[in-house]
Records
---
Amino acid sequence: MGIKILWDQQSPAGIQLPVSRLIAMLLDTETETIEYPLLVDGYDRERDQHDAQKILDRLQNTFIRRYAIAEPLLLVTSRDLFVNGCDFVFGLARPSCGAAVVSTARLDNAYYSRMPNDDDLIDRTAKEGAHEVGHLLGLGHCSNPECVMFRPRTLDELDRKKKMLCPDCSETLALRTCR
Ligand SMILES: [Zn+2]
Ligand SMILES: [Zn+2]
């Protein structure tokens, strides 16, 4: 079973291939890259952010249906995301329909007035993208701060995670995907 990775046309250039490869390595699966043909909606003018739930609604109701997609689907976007009750989210997954979204907005050093670094952006996007797809594959949050399924609340917590699943999560994933 592969993973389809959709790229918002405004997502950062040049990171698609390395991010896709890292996600494939992290989850031990194949990835396919597709340019997202729709507009990313859910824009909230007051917050100047996009509602991640509305983005997933669109993926579920339009994209997955129209193209009859059965594989887990991850949209990578540069828009800053929120869900009701949170200032922001790095990403969001909806396992019931197999769709997830991850935002590069707060994964970029520029957001924190730090020196731009593509490798940082690639690593973080891969870790958070794999994290959301991990939810689609049945994984929950992990208490191991170095595991990709750990839920980071800050950039430093995200950077502390390694580009791997801990042994427990790896085992759970293997059990779930070999059925
Ligand atoms: Zn999570
Ligand atoms: Zn874990």
---
Amino acid sequence: MRKGPGGSRRARAAGSGPGPGPVAVPVPLPGPGLCPRSRRCPRPLLPLLALAAAAAALLYVAWPGGERGTGPPPPGPPPEQALRALLGQLDPTRLRDTFLRPLLRERVPGGPGSRAARQHIMGCLGALGAAWHLELDAFEAVTPRGPVTFTNVVATVAPAAPRRLVLACHYDTKILPPGPGKQLFLGATDSAVPCAILLELAAALDRPLRRAKDRGAELTLQLLFLDGEEAFGDWSVTDSLYGARHLAARMAATPHGPHGTQITTMSLLVLLDLLGARHPAIHSHFPRTHHWFLRLVAIEQRLRQLGLLHVLPQDQPFFRLSPAPGPVEDDHVPFLQRGVPVLHLIPTPFPRVWHTLEDTEDNLHPPTMEALCKILVAFVAEFLQF
Ligand SMILES: [Zn+2]
């Protein structure tokens, strides 16, 4: 992903420069408040966004069904004992050693690291009891470096279920020149940690996922591990989001159920990116999904009150009610353009190490990663009504 021209210190550090200002040719993006091309909204939009967010907050009720008919509201958040049992299924050692570490290598599309990462992801999910349906979406696209083969991994617990909660991240790494010691860009926050978090959630929820599948639940879980998020040269509409653009188009053309497509099965797409560093500030980006964002706020608050997050009392919450500094172009865009409700879980500002060779395991903050897993596992369990 990239923040807009004229953007942050980190955008300049990544070599995109202070930029010439917003680009003249807009991308047609129907999402409310999403600025074309520029990732920073023009100032006049910000008060409007804040107003819209406030209106959405006022309209919020305990668990509205959502615009795609997410069904009757669940019985509510689980009681404390059930919540503790759920969180007990998370394993920080497994997250780090089993799921994350094998991903910490260069994962350039079409290269050996990319293939190894894909095999790792599929091996982890294939070993679980929920019998995930695993599918590869491989295709070739022209890039500034010539034709490249990209491969998305699509994992679904119950592919025939009429509705899906979709969690997504990208697994490719940006091409950066090696450092003086020949060190490579490992993209720990970008996006090895989000991939590892998705695997950890799948492992922690394995039993309830299997039970829901066995009883033919209407709503299932789908994980997208997208390839080719990063630009090969300067970020543009054609040089970025290769995997997401291809998969969203393919899903929109694939019928599902009597009247829908794979795209219309998506009750909500939750995109994780740039997570794993300390003190993330994650904002709500879309009024349409603000009610879901408020569930994350409430879950974080509850876990903090129960003393279940290893954070200091003075630490600010991860999920912030203040308006987002601006939208960020990322893998959600091709799905948003096709009407999918989106939650974009990305810290703004970006981590200090963004698009530098310092984006390594040493600069991750394990208690933050564990806390995010706890919040997200509770969110997914509530959404899927476990
Ligand atoms: Zn990146």
---
Amino acid sequence: MNTYNDYHLGFKEHNQKMIESTYKNEMKGNNKRTLVFSYDDDGDCVNAGSRTEDNKDIIEINTKVLLEIYSMAYTLFSQPVFLPNIGNANNESPALIRATYNKSIDKILLTGEPKDEKRGVLARYLGFSGCQFILLHELGHILNGHTELMTSLGLAENGFNMIAKAILDQKIDCYTGYSLDRRTLEMDADAFAYSTTFQEILAMFSDKDDFYINHLSNPIDIFFLYGVMHMLVFLYLEYEFPIAYDKKNTYLPNSCRYALGFGIFEKILQDNGFTQGYINIILPRILGGGKIASKFFNMIYHTDYNFLEMAVHDNNLKEYVDEVNTHWEKEMKRRLKKYRITKLFNEEDN
Ligand SMILES: [Zn+2]
């Protein structure tokens, strides 16, 4: 079941509804806490963050991040060579489409749209699924107890920002190991976004009447599209905030953050009873979406990113991910237990 066929909803209204339903579901009986969205429509700094203050869970978001994702989604579907089997792709004339936001009507305005209606619908879907991923990452910080942990350490005002303001301001002498803690929590927030979005994709896939599935030539293409979204989000982050292998970083490199998804997808597919044969069809579809997304991203932004190549050949990647996974198992899972709302990743293994 998905709730996004609500074309009549405004842009922010739609985002909020989408995230609020997950929040309310997880909060269940807890009526004390409320979720608040705070948008920065004019800021130039690409940034998203979350924090918890006096029972208020706050997601802060720079509107530009979401608009960039929409711009990319619409640009992709207006290329005749992108998913040529969907709709009448030959009629498309390749264009760079930009999305802007009109505050007074709460709508996204586009400089163009795919000519084919089906492709337009799917461009919109691709756009909001990218936004959903970004917003769910922030919600993950809240529901998995990260923001409350930060509050308990006196670091609430900084929250989880894309740019670790706290570090820039050099306020963080509070405890050592901050960067590793943060990298670990960022990985956990990514894991939350991955599992929530991927479960939803599976639900769509198995729903014969799903609105978006019916716009695809083959239901399995939903995994391809998911792979496009997943890659675009991290390529865009890399473009705005390249992250290097450095122990002082509060994030894993974007290529690691991208690659981590695959382990989660595989586990979810297994938990949902998919056979290995089926899994071996689905995962390459996600990967295929990622490859196409990279190709187009590099073309549009004049970059030369290759996360897939890095994921296979980069030895640092394994060492980095192992360090964070170990820290998660040995330390952070325990520290988060009293704050978390949702069950933590692998928590049942304890
Ligand atoms: Zn984060």
---
Amino acid sequence: MSNTQAQPTGYCYCGCGNTVGYGRYFAAGHDKTAEAAFLAIHHEGTVAQMLHAHGYRGVADRSEKSSVTKAAVDQGLWEECPKGCGYRGTRESINNHVNRYHQD
Ligand SMILES: [Zn+2]
Ligand SMILES: [Zn+2]
């Protein structure tokens, strides 16, 4: 593990001061609080502005590199649905998706 990664401190990463269990970063639900505060500070409170700041946007062609889900697949972090329906997600998410929508 790289030492540039966030390490648990024993306190909630949202900054509320609550203690959290060993190896945890957040009290239950506080990851959403932290995310909202971060977006408010850095990206006018919206995911769209955050994506824009990193060069992503809405595209007609899903294979364009300014598609954030395409970028995740290109970097080997996410996968495409093996049935070719266009769904993208984590391996676990793909498995759930295939089981739910592509049962023969
Ligand atoms: Zn918190
Ligand atoms: Zn699919």
